[in-house]
Amino acid sequence: MASDEPLLVSHQDAQNEESNAKGRDDVRRLLAQETNGKVDSDGSLDPAEDSNGADKSEDAAPARWSMREVAKLARENAAGDMACALVALVVSSGTNLALPKIMGWMVDLVVARGPGASGSVGGSQLLENTTASGRPSVAQAAWAALGVFAAGAVGSIARVFFLSSAETKIARRLRVDLYRATLQYGPVEQDANAVISCLAQDAEDLSKSICKNIASLYRGCNSAFGGAAMLCYISPQLTMVSLSLLPMIGSGAFAFSRFSRRIAKSVKEDTRNAVARAGERVQQLATVRMFNGEKREVERFASALDGLCGRAGRAALAEGLFMGGLGFSLNASLLAVVCYGGRLVAAGSMTGGQLASFAMYSGLMGLGFGQLGSAYSDFSRSLGASQRLKALLADMPASGSTPTPRPEGDAIAQQILDPVLRFENVHFAYAANPDKEILRGLDLTLEPGKVVCIAGRSGVGKSTLSKLIMRVEQDWQGQITLDGRDIREIPLTAYRTLLSAVDQRPALFTDLTIAENIAFSRPGASEDEVREAARMAEAFEFIEALPDGFASIVGGGPKSVQLSVGQAQRIALARAFLRRARVYIFDEHSSSLDHRAEQDVQRSVRGLAARGCAVVVIAHRASMLEAADHIVVLENGAVAEQGTFADLLAKPDGPFRDLLSSLRQRSD
C-alpha cells in the first residue's frame, strides 16, 4: 500500500468541484424524502473486487446505523466497561426508585400517633430511637436514607467513570476503522474534508451518543416502569388517573424524534457542504481574488448559513413545543393525582405518606418516560447525523469475508518473475460518466527491460492506463495480466508490493522528516539505502545542504523547511526508487527539474529497466519521448501506433509526428 500513497493523495484537487456538486445533489435528495435505507449485512465491498464504492453509495439509499449494530459496537469494544456501568446504573437508579418510598415512610412517621393518642408528635420524641408504637424514629429513618443516598452517589461516580472509558474506546475503534477503510478500501477520489470531519467529530459524537443514551435509556426505563409498578402497588385506582396522559406523551415523543432526525441530518450535511465549499475557496484564494470574487463568495457562504439558521430555528421551536407540552402534561397529571389522592386520604383508603410517595412516583414515572423520549430522539438524531460515517465505513470488508493472508499474498507476488504487462481487449469508462469510454478495446504489451513511454493528446487515456495498472480503478472489461496472471486475482496488498509510482503532483507528508518521507515506500530501509535512493533522484546534494539534512521536517511549521516543487518531486522520486518494485510508473515525474537533473534522473530510470523491471512513463513533454526505448501512441482509447522514436518519426503521416510537433511548440 505504501508505494502508491503519494499518487492516491494527489488526485483529490482535480475532483473537488465535481465532488462538491455531487454532495449538494445528495443533500437535496436527502431533504426531499425521509430515508430509512440500510446497507446489507454483507454489503461491505471487497477491496480486490470493487472499484466503484463512491458511486454506489451515492446512488443507493444512505446507510443508517441500526440498533443491532450499535449494540454490537459497544459489546465488542467496551463490554467490560459497559457491564460495570450497568451495575453502577442499577445501584444509582435503584436509589432513585427507593427515594419516594423512603420519603413517604418518613412522612407517616412524622404524622403517626400511638394507639389511641391524639395530637402531633413532639420534636424531642421524633429523635428518640423508637416511637411510642415501637416504630423506628425519624432519626433512624433519616440515617437509613443517608445510607441509600451514599450508595447512589457511589453508583453515580462509577457510572460516569465507566461510561467515559467506554466512550473513549468506542471512539477509538470508529476512528481506526474509518482510517483503515479510507486508506485501504475507500475510493481514491473522495472528499477529504468529509473524512477529516468524521475522524474529528462524527466518531466522537456517535460514541458519546451511544454511551450517554444507553445510560439515559436504562434510567428512563427504570424510572418509568419501576415507577409505574410502585404506583400500582400503592394504589391501582389512583394509578389509572396518573397514566391517563401517557398515550399522548408517547405519541408526541415519537413524532418529535422523527422530525428532529430529519432536521439534524439535513443541517449536518448542509453545514459540511458549506464548509467544504468555503475550504475550497480558501485553497484557491488567488483565483478568487484575481476575478474579484471575494464579495460574491462571502454572500454565497452567508446565504448557505442563513438557510441553516432557519432550519435550526424550526428544530428549536419543535423541541420547545415538545418539552413545553411534556412539562404541562406531567404537571396536569400530578395535579390530578393530588386532587383525587386527597379524597382517598380523607376517606381513609391511603395514608398521607402513601399519597406523598405516589405523587413522587408519578413525577418520577413522567420524568422517566420523558427521558426515554428525549434519549430516543437524541439517539435517532445522532444516528441520522452520522450517516456519512456509516457510508465511509461501508467500504470495509464484511466481517464474514477475510482477505488473503499476507504470507500467502506475498508468496503469490513472489511468483511474478517476468513482469510483462498485457492489456487484452480492455474497455473502461469512469463511473461518473459510464457512457463515455476512455479505453476502447485496448491491446498492448509492456515488456520489462525497456523504458516504455505512453504518449497521446489530452484525454486519450494515458493517466487512466496507469490507474488500471495500479488498480486504483478496477471496473474494466477485458483482461490485464502480469506475467500471465490476471492482476485482479493477486491480493491487492501483495500486488502493490510489486508497484512503485510517482504522480504529476507528488505529495509529501508534513509531519515526517525527509528521510521518513523517502522510507515511507519501504519501512525498515537502512540509512544508506535511503541516501542511495536520494542520489538516484538527484536529491542528495540539496538535502545535505539543509540545516538538519535528512532529519529536516517537511511542511510549513516553524521548525520545518520549505521545499520547491522540483525538490519535492526529487524526494518523491527517491521514495519510488527505494521501493524495489517490479513495475514502475512515472507520470510527469521530471516536469519541475532542470535539464541536467532531468538527464541524471533519466539515467536512474534506465537503470531500473536494466534490472529487468517494467518501466512505464506517461509522456507530457518531448524530452521524455526522445529518451524512451519504446513509444506507444494512444488515440481514441486504443493504440494508434508504437515503436522506437526513430521508427515513429520516420512515418510522415503518423499521429506521432503531429503529437511531437505540438509538444515541442508547447515547450518553446
UniProtKB/TrEMBL annotation:
GO terms for biological process: oligopeptide export from mitochondrion. Pfam families: ABC_membrane, ABC_tran. Residues 19-41, 53-63 have a biased composition (Basic and acidic residues). Residues 85-381 form the ABC transmembrane type-1 domain. It comes from the Eukaryota. PANTHER family: ATP-BINDING CASSETTE SUB-FAMILY B MEMBER 10, MITOCHONDRIAL (PTHR43394:SF1), ATP-DEPENDENT PERMEASE MDL1, MITOCHONDRIAL (PTHR43394). This is ABC transporter B family member 25.
